[in-house]
Amino acid sequence: MASPSLERAFSFSCWCLFPPFFVYHWVEMRAKMRLMGFNAETIKPLNEEAAAELGAELLGEATIFVVACGCLVLEYSRQKMQQRRKEGEQLAAWDAMRDEVDHLALVLEALQAQVQATPPPGALEELQAQMREVRAKLCIQDLPPAPQAEPTPEDEGPLDPGLGQD
What we know:
Blueprint: H1 4-36, H2 48-117, H3 121-142, H4 153-156
Helix pairs in contact: 1-2
């Protein structure tokens, strides 16, 4: 006598697993017959042993197919995440470069303002020449007057404009 769990397993396989295999066998045989040119209206059903073998084969192929699809989905999602990470790094690098360019633009503006504020080289030379002149004048004014010798009558010339003229 069969155990109750074996009977439940058998009834599960008879009612849940076998019908899809029978339908698969029916569709497959009908397609093959049409391709070969036969007109088969009735197709001999599979026995339970052949159905179990076909079911095991289909179940194995379905398992491999599901695992392969899962691997493809995981690889696709991994590639997408890697691409997003690279794009994020690239955007961060672009932002850093943009900030650096903005900073350098501000520094350039400050340097241009300093250059414009400084007098041109010709003006500098002109200012130096003016300072030399001012220093020369200041030096002359600061020196005590040189002692002057008593004028001699020869140096002074005639006292009377009318005298000494013959």
